[in-house]
């Protein structure tokens, strides 16, 4: 069945259009996906770190400390709101013009927005224009992130051999914890090399300005990889969709909904870990900032390892089973997570984040392969990117803000734990309804 003939009755893995690229090219694409998404997410996460540590005093100085923190987390969520639009735009042109071109453009846009934050005057310098411009730059970051993941995931998965799509699809996934580790390390170094006054005055800008160097490196790497063989075949056979987002809504509405909801818990709990945890530890538990940064780094390493393990395991047992194990862990762990955190002991906090990130990794590692296998190639970029972006908005966009509000409103971390359990159950139900896309005994080819 050709791309022109494939219709709503044709499953996402109904026809063979690739057997994977040459091994050397597959490895190059995998490395490029990991490095590129690490740079993208470094840019995205230094904003989250700065929102937790300094934005309340730089851009919301007329508010109380608690209100300023809430406002800073609100700007964090604004970037997530822009992601579905980014998913639609990047998905459309990624399905029409190619995966590679959109990945280069997304990296450029993210770099411009990030450096812009580093150069942005504070509220004390230009007044209300400062937080307004901060929101605009965060929106640009959101637009970029909305298309980044889909392109990187599809490049890795569509180049991979059929039996190893989970393994190679994990490379763009590890960009999330790797970017977070890099962001935390840079903030840790800058924090140790500056006084608290220097850090508040100008030190926090350094991680944003360093993005210039990282973006240049990322562009050089991305320009050297070949286009996805799946898209190359689509272009050759003239099988590209003229309106991919409309087609995916028409032919795969069930997959769009289930994929989006399945990502809600992972994103919400992930953002509580990477953004809210720093604020909670330093402001509520009064743990030293550098100690909390180290805890987050250890958890990020555990997250990274778990992503790879979950992705490789999904090649052996199926995407759905790996997803379910991680999702069940996210349901049962939030209460013990906060009970351990609230001891404020270093070992207990590390144990809390390690177990949490294992759940995050097992339910995130197989995602690239799963989402790619759920949608046909002619609208795959649109379907995968839009599902990912909507799940991010529903789950992660305002999770740190909600967590901070629950903590302030109820005065107990158990309120935040209950919120985490609720979103985890919602995603678990969605995952139960997803059809398995990978049979280890007979790996399907992407269509």
UniProtKB/TrEMBL annotation:
Region described as Disordered: spans on this chain: 1-21
Ranges of residues in domain Major facilitator superfamily (MFS) profile: 29-439
PROSITE patterns membership: MFS, SUGAR_TRANSPORT_1
Residues annotated as transmembrane: 44-64, 70-90, 102-120, 126-145, 174-194, 206-225, 256-279, 291-313, 322-340, 346-365, 386-406, 412-434
Membrane-topology annotation of the record: Multi-pass membrane protein
Subcellular localization(s) per the UniProt record: Cell membrane
Gene3D superfamilies, A to Z: MFS general substrate transporter like domains (1.20.1250.20)
The protein's name: MFS transporter
